[in-house]
Structure formats: C-alpha cells, structure tokens
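[Q] Does anyone have a clean structure-token version of this?
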Amino acid sequence: MPDSRPADASPTVRREHADADRWPDVARLPSAAPARTTIARLLVNRALHRLALTERTVGAHADTAGPQLTLHDPDAFHRRIGRDGLIGFGESYMAGEWDSEDPAGVLTVLARHVDELVPAPLRRLRRLWVSARPVADRNTRDGSRSNIRRHYDLSNDLFATFLDPTLSYSSAIFTAFPARPESLASAQHRKIDRLLDLARVGAGTRLLEIGTGWGELALRAAARGAHVTTLTLSSEQAALARDRMAAAGLAERVDVQLRDYRDIEGRYDAVISVEMIEAVGAEYWPAYFTALRRALAPGGRIALQAITMGHQQMLHTAGTHTFISKYVFPGGLIPSRTAIAEHSTAADLRTVADDGFGDHYAETLRLWRERFTANRPAVTGLGFDTAFQRMWEFYLAYSEAGFRSRYLDVRQLLLTEGTPR
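[A] Here you go.
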C-alpha cells in the first residue's frame, strides 16, 4: 500500500551530513572496485526490468508501471550495492541516495523474487558480497545483554511513538483487513488472549514468561488470576513494566526479573515466549528449548509465538551479516519451522498445535510504519537524527515486505512434554 504522507514528510539526509561517529558507513561512501560497481548496476537494471519496478533519477519522467525508486545519487547507490550488497542497499536509503513513495512496495517486489535477482552463474560469487556476522554479536550471556540493550533500551518513548497504548511489539491478530489504527490495541489483546488460552492460563496458574516486553501479556495473565514470573534483559522495559503492574494494582501477582532464560529457576504450569526465539541465535537454540523443558511442570504447556522463514533461506542467512543484524537486531536469527521442530524434539517436547498468520504481521507493520512516519517530529524531539529515522523506516518497510511476500511467516505453537500423557 503506497504511503499517504506528503512528499516533504520524510526528510532526506545526505551522507556528508550524517554523524560520522554514529553512522560511519553511511557518512562515508565506501571504496568499491569498478568491476563490482558495474556488475551491481547491471544486476539492478536487470531486476528492475524483470520485476516491473521503475527506476528514475530526480526530474526524469515517472513511469507508473510499478513501485518506483527515485535515485538522488545513482553512482553512490550502485557503488554501495557493489561493495556491500543488501547492506549497501539499506545504507544508501539511510544516506538519502534513493527514495520511494512506497518503500514497502519496492521491497515486497524484491522479496518475492529474492532468489532470482542474481543469475545462477553469479550466485557462486555470493561470498564476495556478504560478510560474516561479528563474533562480538554472539549471544553469550554478556553478548545477549549487549544485543538487547542496543535495541530495546533505545528509549521507551521512542517505541511509544509507533506502538499502540498496549506497547505490544509483536504481531497482532485482526478480524479484518485493512485494519484501522485505532483497532491495533484490540488486535494485540486478541493475540495475547489466544496465547493465554493455548497455555490454559487462569486463576492460580504459575506462569513463566520469557521476554517481558513492556508487560502487557503479564498484565492480562495477572488479571486472570495467574501468578506471573516474567524475564527480560532490558532494564528500560523492566522498569516500565514494573510501573505498569503497580499502576494496575497487580504488582503482587507479577515478578519482573532481569534474568537470562538460561538461568530460569523453578517449574511452572505454563510457559509463554513471544517472538523471543529470534533473539536467541542458532548456536543457543538447544539451550533455549532445554530451558523451556526444564521449566515445565508435569502436564504443563508451552505457548510460543515465533517469526519463521524457509529452512534453506535460514541456512543461507545464519552466518551472514545483514542490514537487520547490523543496525536493528544484532545477534538475531529467524528460525525455520524445521529448526524449531528439530530442537524442540531434541529437548523432549512435542508440537500439538501450529498456526500461521503472516498477513496479520504485514498489517501490524504497516500500522507501525504509518504511526512512525506521522510522529517524526516527536522522534526528532527525542534526539534521534534523520539517519536513524530513515534506518527505522527502512527496517519497518523491509519487515513488512518480508511478510507480504510470504518470505516470512509468524506462528503460534503449543508444545507439551514429549511423551503423551
């Protein structure tokens, strides 16, 4: 869906104006071999022609055959892609070297054909355009705390500019599309209630939540009469979640802990974890599922909400540094359903329900992106510069495109003990 914002609503940064200390790879145009820049230009032109995308330079005639890229600096655009592939594509957007009235539309087309963008003979050269994930981003205990801080501790006020009043930062479940912005809170409650129902959370339930967020699920569980222990590594989230519990008069029912999932204590009737597995990292998925199983009391139930991708795509992504891992979720990796099944089975867990609703995540992200764009002055007032704002807009559009193209999905799963009772 094209953006409805006026043309001047999204300020354009030029790389020379980006803070070189904060955004070094945006502020400076990378060196790139002429051959790689030429190849990038040829591949981009080929993709645009085949995929009904339109490229134009400023002042050129606009062909409306498909979603349109406007190039402000074509040489820099192709040079960045030639040097760093899709990371360079995103950094070029951050630098204001290209733009679009419909960035999610452009990215959706690309995502639908991502496996076709590079001719087969050149795919063997993929390693020339990708780099390995930084060792520092590994999700050791210290690494996990650092990775979480880099995203979730940016500012509670920042997240409030685009989330709904429930401060839920995961896919909602709607009754109809397109959703109205004011329906997002009720759609988030629908998602939460479905998870609580899956796990059979009610009066007296001992519930463990792994990944507190800003506390909305814990609030609704406590309101049902459950006793909730909820874990997070974000000090910003923990502080606000505790305030929200106190304001609701539910602080005695909810224990918000700054604790790693690997250090869980006790056993619980129900365990819920919403879109947290993506922050664990493939190296630690065995530890994650083992922790889930260890925390489960006999006859207990585990409800997970997880973003997923195809297994081959996951394998290709696992060791690759991407725009998202560089700027948004360091250390993160989206699992495949195959990976979830393998690791949960190895931990003596079995899947008894598995429901996907990727279209709902695309709609959730559309609403977040519209709210973020509409609230740019507030984001600026919080001290976030234009390069950050364009990075965040690209991230939201990039994610929306992943779900609209069905490259990504989101699922709710119910796991129980491996041996049927």
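[Q] Thanks! Anything notable?
[A] The chain has a mean pLDDT of 90.
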